Fold this protein.
Amino acid sequence: MAAEHDGQVSSSGEGRAVSRGEVVRRVGWGALALSEAILRTRLLQGVALFSLIVMVFGAMAGNLVMTVVCVGVGLVGLVLFGVALKRRWPAGRQWVFIAVVFAVDISLIVVAADLGR
């Protein structure tokens, strides 16, 4: 039974009715959060793969400077990938990390492929 004292209600097992729209909204936001987390995890794995590809392209470039730069950047990308997973960075920081590493990796792949010809 609900007892009312000074404007406060204490209930024993009784809760307010949740509207259908509120349930749909909560489920929708939950599905959106889950989808974003899955996408972010897959992109972090893609960052690790791209870092490995940069190292391979750098090794095939035939230019010593480009080889050292690509292998170094690839290793930094892999180390940052490990740090991002181990330290559980906030989602915003992970998205920035993904964008920066992808941009650097793609530009180095293009430069290494151009030098490899």
